[in-house]
Amino acid sequence: MGVPHGHWKTTTFVGALTTRGFIAPWVLDGPINRKRQPVAVSFFR
């Protein structure tokens, strides 16, 4: 049996769930870190 190996890639999916359904989907290539956190906060204001 083989073991997965290689370079892994992280994708982050952010959105909001309301009574009307799922809104404001946003997909990032990579994790939300200190550099991207202010951008994420301003996106949902």
How are the secondary structure elements laid out?
Blueprint lengths: L10 E8 L2 E9 L7 H7 L2
Antiparallel strand pairs: 1-2
Summarize the structure.
It is built from one helix and two strands.
Molecular structure report:
This protein has 45 residues and is of the alpha+beta class. The chain has a domain of 28 residues. It has a two-stranded antiparallel sheet with strand order 1-2. The radius of gyration is 15 Å and the shape is flat. The model has no long low-confidence stretch (mean pLDDT 78).
**Structural class, please?**
alpha+beta
Going across the major beta sheet, what is the strand order? Answer: 1-2
* Major sheet description: 2 strands, antiparallel
Question: Could you estimate the helical fraction of the residues in percent?
Answer: 10-25%
Question: How many strand elements?
Answer: 2
Average pLDDT for all residues: 78
Radius of gyration: 15 Å
SSE topology string: EEH
Low-pLDDT sequence parts: none
How many H/I helices?
1
Shape: flat
End-to-end separation: 48 Å
Percentage beta strand = 35-45%
